[in-house]
Amino acid sequence: MVYAPAPLVDPTTFLARSVGAATAADGMLLWCPREDLRLLVLWGTPSEQSADTLVAFMSAEIKPERGRYRSYVDLRRLEAIGSAPFERFLGFMRAHTARFAAQVERSVLVHGGGVTGAAAAGYSRLVGEPFESRAFTDPVEALEWLCPGEDAPTITESLDTMYDRAAREEGLAARARRRLRADLKDVSLQRVAADLGVAPRSLQRDLATAGSTFRLEVRAARIEAAKEALARGEDKLFSIAIDVGFASLQAFSDAFVEATGERPSAYRARLRSE
Predict the structure, then answer these.
(1) Other residues' Cβ atoms within 10 Å of the Cβ of residue 149
(2) Nearest in space to 146 (alpha carbons), one of 94, 98, 74, 50
(3) pLDDT digits over 40-97, tens only?
């Protein structure tokens, strides 16, 4: 089989017909070159939206009518792992352990040590091993173990090519979102634009093209940070509101309800019950 880079399609199209296609969404690339092989690359700081896209894809893949497959996950380019996306993914895995045991033949995690090595170790410890799984630091060695006899160097090269394309096409809007999620201390338009090396008007124009505004992106980043804090511990809601940049608990609660459909206290209670 020839493992040439696949065209990137939107997530909806990919979910409808994944074999032979690839999709990318905010720090995540999925590629299914054949019926029994799934490859995933994560980079930067994946958002909860990325976790939702991944969970939607995995939900389709573990249906009984689907055949068994092998899974490759590349964590080498991760910069950080938020607790909300991780809990979303972990909760799904735990809830469907039996289905994964039936569908997945074997799996590999490729990491680069540091935060990615910790993520690989933490994943294996928390989920367990419902299927045969190993961790590697070399992607070619990982694919040689996962798919003996296949052209591992070519698969790796094609996957890297698609990653380069996906990261490049994320554009200025995606870079701004990552910057906001990484640091909420100074979120003025001028400061963020300067950090990205562009003019404020260029950033506003790119966000408008993406169907957003700088104000909406700041609020979204604050909500994401609040979700992280709610999932992480016992901090009081008022403290979380101030820490992520809201002027009052009421302003925080109203924005959180508008963004998620539930109050912060209900969101935290739901996470604890899952």
Answers:
(1) 6
(2) 74
(3) 998 887 777 677 778 888 887 887 777 889 999 999 888 777 777 777 777 888 888 8
Residue 27 · residue 46 · CB < 8 Å: yes
> Alpha-carbon distance 269 to 267, whole Å?
5
User: What pLDDT is stored for residue 178 in this prediction?
Assistant: 79
Beta-carbon contacts of 162 under 8 Å, excluding residues fewer than 6 positions away, are 5, 6, 8, 22, 24, 29, 31, 41
Domain edges within the chain: 8-169, 171-273
Which residue type, as a one-letter code, is found at position 32?
C
Per DSSP, the residues of 162-206 read HHHHHHHHTHHHHHHHHHHHH--S---HHHHHHHHTS-HHHHHHH
User: Which pLDDT does position 126 carry in this prediction?
Assistant: 57
- Burial of residue 67 (CB within 10 Å: 0-12, 13-18, 19+) is exposed
Domain 171-273 CATH superfamily: Homeodomain-like (1.10.10.60)
In the CATH scheme, what is the homologous superfamily, with its name and number, of domain 8-169? Answer: SpoIIaa-like domains (3.40.50.10600)
What is the H or E stretch that residue 34 is in? strand 28-34
For residues 25 and 174, give the distance between their C-alpha atoms in angstroms, rounded to a whole number.
10
CA–CA separation, 204 and 208 (whole Å):
6
Residues of the chain with pLDDT under 70: 49, 115-116, 118-129, 169, 210, 274
